[in-house]
Amino acid sequence: MSASARIPPIAQPFVSDRAKKTLDLVEEFVEKECIPAEALFSAQLGVGEKRWKTNPAAMEELKVKARKIGLWNMFLPKNHFSQGAGFSNVEYGLMAEYLGKSKVASEATNNAAPDTGNMEVFAKYGNDQQKAQWLSPLLEGKIRSAFLMTEPEIASSDATNIQLDIRREGNEYVLNGSKWWSSGAGDPRCQIYLVMGKTDARNPDPYKQQSVVLVPANTPGVTIHRMLSVYGYDDAPHGHGHITFENVRVPLSAMVLGEGRGFEIIQGRLGPGRIHHAMRTIGAAERAVDWLIARINDDRKKPFGQPLSSHGVILEWLAKSRIEIDSARLIVLNAAIKIDQGNAKFALKEIAQAKVLVPQIALSVIDRAVQAYGAAGVSQDTPLANLWAMIRTLRIADGPDEVHLQQLGKRENKSRREEVVKRLAWQREQSDKNLTANGFPKTKSSL
Ligand SMILES: Cc1cc2nc3c(=O)[nH]c(=O)nc-3n(C[C@H](O)[C@H](O)[C@H](O)COP(=O)(O)OP(=O)(O)OC[C@H]3O[C@@H](n4cnc5c(N)ncnc54)[C@H](O)[C@@H]3O)c2cc1C
C-alpha cells in the first residue's frame, strides 16, 4: 500500500491530490535513494578532523535527484509563505514522517533543521536585504545556518535568563557572551548565525529585553571552541557547537525585526518546527518497527528453539508499538491541521501535546527493537542506537518536557476550573435532591 493510501482517514480531507502524489514520491525517494545512501554518506565523512571539513558527495548527489523530482522546500506552509513548495502543515507533516526515517533525507530535500526554522524567521521577519543575502541561498541549499540561544552558564529552558550582551555602539552592535548546543555550527557550509541576546537587560518587561541579530560565521571575535557529543555521537558534519563572542561587531542592519522583539521571533519560529520534529520522530519509530519485524522473522535466530515471532511477549511489543505510533501520529496531524486553520499560536495546546508525547512513545518503540536485537541492538550494526540517542535529545531540545507540561497543566487548569467546579457542585446538589425526593438520605460525602 502506498504512503498516500495509508493517510489516516481523519486527515484525508485536508490533503490535496498534488500532496498525495508528492507524498508517494517522498516515500520512494527515502526508501530507494536515501536509506541506501546512508552508509556511503558516513564513509565519505571519514574520521577525525576531516568530519568537520567534508560535505559528502553522496549528499550533493541526493540533492540533485530530489530537486529533479520536485522534492524541495516542502516545509514552508502555503498559508503563510510564498517561497515554499505550496503545501499545508498537515501535508508537509505527512511527508516529514518519511523524511524522518533516514538521517540524510531532510537535508537532501532542503527540509532540515535548524535551517527550516531559520528560513521561516527570514521569510517572516527579515527585511528585503536580509532575505536577499541569507534566505535565497538557504532556499537554494547552498549554505547552512544555526540558531544560537542556549548558554552554558544559565538555565536556558527559561529564555528570560539569556545573558549574551548586545550593546549598541555608533552604527554597530557589539556582542559579548557564550553559547552552546549551537546545532549546525560544525558544518563547513554554515555561514550565518541567528544569535539571541539582550539589548535591554533593564527593561521592566522581561520579554522585551531580548533581540535576535545576524552574525556571519567568520566575523572576528567569534570562536568555536568544540563540538559537543550526543551520547558519544558527534553528529558530523552538522555538530553542536560551543561558541564564544568577544567584542563581535555587526552593523545595525543585522538586527532582525527590531530591538526587543527576540521573544516574538523565537515563539514564531518554534511552533511549526515542533510539528516537523514530531512527524520525523514518528518516521524514526516506524524505521525501528521495520527493524523489529526483520529481527523477529530472522530464521537464523531461534532462542529456545523458536523464532522470536513465536514468543507472545515479542508480538505484544509489536502490537503495542503499532498502537502507540498510530495514536501519536493522530496527535501530530491534529496539531498540524489546527495550525493550518489559524496559526501556531492558535494551536499552542496541540503543539505542546505532540512535542511531549511523540518522543516518549518513539523511545519506547525504539527500545523494544533494541531489546529484540540483543547486543547487536546497541551496536553500530543497526540504526537503532543512533536513532535512540537522536530522539532522546528531543525531550530536552526546544524546551524540556517539564516546561511544556507545566504550561499545558496551567492552561488546562485556568481554562476549566471555574466551569468544572460549578458543574460538579450542581451535579452533587441534584444528586442529593434525587435521593431525598425518593426517600433516601443524602450522601455523607464532604467533597
Ligand atoms: C541535540 C540538541 C540540540 C540542540 N540544539 C540547539 C540549538 O540549535 N540552538 C539552541 O539555542 N539550543 C539548542 N539546544 C539546547 C536546548 O534547547 C536546551 O538544552 C534546552 O532549552 C534546555 O536548556 P538547558 O540545557 O539550559 O537546561 P536547563 O534550563 O538547565 O534545565 C534542566 C532541566 O531542568 C528541568 N526543568 C526546567 N524547567 C523546569 C520546570 N519549569 N519544571 C520542572 N523542571 C524543569 C528539566 O528537567 C530540564 O531538562 C539543543 C539541545 C540538544 C540536546
UniProtKB/TrEMBL annotation:
| Family membership | Belongs to the acyl-CoA dehydrogenase family.
Q: Which Pfam families does this UniProt record tie to the protein?
A: Acyl-CoA_dh_1 (PF00441), Acyl-CoA_dh_M (PF02770), Acyl-CoA_dh_N (PF02771)
Q: Can you name this protein?
A: Acyl-CoA dehydrogenase/oxidase
- How does this polypeptide assemble, per the annotation? Homodimer.
Q: Where is the Acyl-CoA oxidase/dehydrogenase middle domain?
A: 146-248
Q: Which organism is it from?
A: Aspergillus puulaauensis
Cofactor(s) it depends on: FAD
* GO CC annotation terms, alphabetical: cytoplasm
Record keywords: FAD, Flavoprotein, Oxidoreductase
Example GO BP:
fatty acid beta-oxidation using acyl-CoA dehydrogenase
Q: Which InterPro entries match?
A: Acyl-CoA_dehydrogenase, Acyl-CoA_Oxase/DH_mid-dom, Acyl-CoA_Oxase/DH_mid-dom_sf, AcylCo_DH-like_C, AcylCo_DH/oxidase_C, AcylCoA_DH/ox_N, AcylCoA_DH/ox_N_sf, AcylCoA_DH/oxidase_NM_dom_sf
Q: Where is the Acyl-CoA dehydrogenase/oxidase C-terminal domain?
A: 260-411
Q: Acyl-CoA dehydrogenase/oxidase N-terminal domain spans which residues? A: 19-142
Q: Name one GO molecular function term.
A: flavin adenine dinucleotide binding
